[in-house]
Amino acid sequence: MATSPETAFPPLDGDGRVDVTVIGGGIAGITTAFLLKKAGLTVALIDAYRIITGTTGHTTAKITSLHRLVYRDLIDRVGSGKAKQYADANQAGLNLIASLVREYDIPCDFVRKPAYTYAESEESRDLVMDEADAARSLGLPAVFTEEVPLPGRTHGAVILEDQAQFHPRNYLLLLAGHLPGEGSYVFEMTRAVDLEERADGVVVKTDRGSLSSDYAVLATHYPIYDRPGAYFARMQPSRSYALGIRIDEPFPNGIFINVAAPVHSWRSQPAGDGDLVIVTGAPHDTGKAADTRAHYRSLEAYARSVYPVRSVDYHWSAQDYITADRIPYIGRIAAGHDRVYVATGFQKWGMAAGTAAGMILADLIRGRTNPWAEVFDPSRFREQPEFPDRVRKRLAAAGGAIEVGTDRIDHEIGTIPPGEGKVIEIDGQKVAVYRDGGGEIHTLDPTCMHMGCTVAWNNAEKSWDCPCHGSRYAADGRVIESPTVRDLRRKEVVRR
Ligand SMILES: Cc1cc2nc3c(=O)[nH]c(=O)nc-3n(C[C@H](O)[C@H](O)[C@H](O)COP(=O)(O)OP(=O)(O)OC[C@H]3O[C@@H](n4cnc5c(N)ncnc54)[C@H](O)[C@@H]3O)c2cc1C
Ligand code: FES
């Protein structure tokens, strides 16, 4: 975000029609839109904010098919055939990025590197050896090695050669720049709020007008239209923390992640004069950490235990979705819904897979078969719970006022320092209270407007985060992240 230009695409103004509406300007949406336009279709890519400022703008951007330990597990659970589809799709995603970088001469620091999953204990050593065998059996060039060029004692690693890293914004900005023209568009600051499936197409309703098209693609990270496939029952949001640090020694050639918890991942990135080293980790389920600042502290302490850290130049956090079977959902949103497609659940491995998602969706929308579509098919689960009526009622009742005794509420509010927030519960009634930097109190209903769970305060990012499906809201209640499309409701506190 700090080392690439900002965008200024216009918002949608009124209604329009294209062949395909792609909602969400991250790696999945931009790649899908780009490939569809290249194939001769007209597309409209819309984003609620500026493109590539969601998780793709806050990723660590290793492009690899080595997803920590995945292949032994996949072979055991879904069989070698589907595990090979998973591996081939990721390799194809990586190779597509490489070929587009070459074809369009994209200045995005794309560089091939070996990917390592390394063991830090003797028990983990067997796991990486086994992973190397499993990956090789699927045709990936994986080997076990004793040599891990990171400081400290390690117990071997699986290496996958010829993987890569890049600057994801600089790469995607160029692809997005090719979208407008010949009947295609990019609309920023345009939030999709609903979607209507019709026999002859789809209407995407936004806060700026409606877009009609033959097909719609939900690439909003978590699908904002999630009822047909009951995605709310099949994915968990997980946040991770990242630091951009400077160290006094050269960083080794490779991209690295460890086997056992807590997870730590390393890579370097040219930035200014010299390399920035990006270290990530300290994950937790969104909305379920009492003190999110502690996650930055523990990550920094870990980084300092590995390298002498000269400076911490950047820090940020972001989230991604973990699916029920640890395989992304890419394809028709649900059986019988032939005009709406989805790409989600990348489990913190969305660069190669998000690109493969674009390839799969572009094929399916054009009526072509795709060799890897089966393993990612979202309708692989039969069980599809209903959107319960009680949720509808809860959302309809959100907002209004709570009536409480003066002493109790004032005591609770008095414990909140400036710049902090808290969900206060008195006599079974809840209110989300934020005290701004100037000391003024803002009160909101903590009912998440997606499906009615109670949001929690995130003290590091100053946001309200929902533990159920990862919707996030600014301190004043405005939507930051999907699946919600509605702000938190105001809630008045009436003192008795
Ligand atoms: C800390 C961290 C590190 C990671 N590191 C790696 C890595 O090294 N390698 C790797 O392969 N993967 C990595 N990942 C995973 C990868 O970054 C993600 O899987 C990927 O970026 C997800 O892309 P996306 O296009 O699905 O979503 P996003 O990039 O989040 O894009 C979704 C877009 O949809 C828009 N949107 C949302 N709601 C609406 C709406 N209602 N209307 C219109 N637009 C909307 C948002 O504004 C956003 O721009 C990492 C993830 C995290 C959290
Ligand atoms: S994100 Fe689904 S209920 Fe909050």
Helix share, percent: 10-25%
Dominant shape: globular
Number of structural units classed as domains: 3
How widely separated are the two ends? 48 Å
CATH fold category name of the largest domain: FAD/NAD(P)-binding domain
What would the average pLDDT be, to the nearest integer?
Answer: 95
Question: How many individual helices?
Answer: 9
In terms of DSSP E residues, the strand content is: 25-35%
List all distinct small molecules, including ions and cofactors, that are bound in this structure: flavin-adenine dinucleotide, FE2/S2 (inorganic) cluster
Taking the sheet with the most strands, its summary is:
9 strands, mixed
The rounded Rg comes to 23 Å
**Architecture per CATH nomenclature, i.e. the level-2 architecture of the largest domain:** 3-Layer(bba) Sandwich
CATH top level of the largest domain is Alpha Beta
The structure class reads: alpha+beta
Number of strands: 28
Model regions low in confidence, pLDDT < 50 over at least 5 residues: none
Structure description:
The protein is an alpha+beta fold. The protein folds into three domains: 163 residues, 3-Layer(bba) Sandwich (FAD/NAD(P)-binding domain); 146 residues, D-Amino Acid Oxidase, Chain A, domain 2; 107 residues, Rieske [2Fe-2S] iron-sulphur domain (Rieske Iron-sulfur Protein), CATH 2.102.10. The protein is built from nine helices and 28 strands. The strands form six sheets. Strands 4, 5, 6, 7, 13, 14, 15, 16 and 17 form a nine-stranded mixed sheet that branches. It has a six-stranded mixed sheet with strand order 8-3-2-12-19-18, with helices on one face. Strand 2, helix 1 and strand 3 form a beta-alpha-beta unit. Helix 1 runs parallel beside helix 4 and helix 1 runs parallel beside helix 6. The longest helix has 33 residues. The protein is globular. Flavin-adenine dinucleotide binds next to helix 1, strand 13, strand 17 and helix 6.
